[in-house]
Design brief:
Layout lengths: L8 E7 L2 E6 L5 H9 L1 H4 L9 E7 L6 E7 L5 E12 L3 E8 L8 E7 L9
Antiparallel strand pairs: 1-2, 3-4, 4-5, 5-6, 6-7
């Protein structure tokens, strides 16, 4: 059985170009999907400890852009942006993600979020 509100995150490396994180929540996937896709919710959890989102823009449709600016406690801003490639409500999000600092080369990666309903296993 899953532990209620378990903060554990499992990290795996499926290939030399992939990192997979898994976390189990005791909430329905439709609610988790909303937490990832509505600015009024994202503002409460996205970013590093001690940071705030000064910009949180989400245009949720394939081809739509998102943009966040994370302000650290020292006042520095860290901009991120991306474009949605695939959206299956309450099931899957696929989007590009970029740390938008041209002096660093604006590295970009592809993120896939999968929301699954799990049932408790009985021994």
């Amino acid at each position: 059985m899953f532990e209620k509100n378990s903060p554990e995150v499992t990290l795996t490396l499926p290939s030399d170009r992939e990192i997979a994180f898994t976390r189990i929540f005791e909430w329905p996937r439709y609610l988790l999907f909303e937490m990832w896709t509505k600015p009024e919710h994202v503002r409460h959890w996205w970013g590093c400890a001690g940071s705030t989102l000064t910009v949180c823009e989400i245009d949720l449709h394939p081809g739509g852009a998102w943009r966040f600016v994370m302000r650290m406690a020292d006042g520095t801003d860290h901009p991120f942006k991306g474009v949605y490639r695939e959206i299956v409500p309450a099931e899957r999000l696929v989007y590009s993600e970029c740390y938008d600092v041209p002096s660093l080369g604006t590295p970009e990666w592809l993120t896939t979020i999968t929301f699954e309903e799990l049932t408790a296993r009985r021994n």
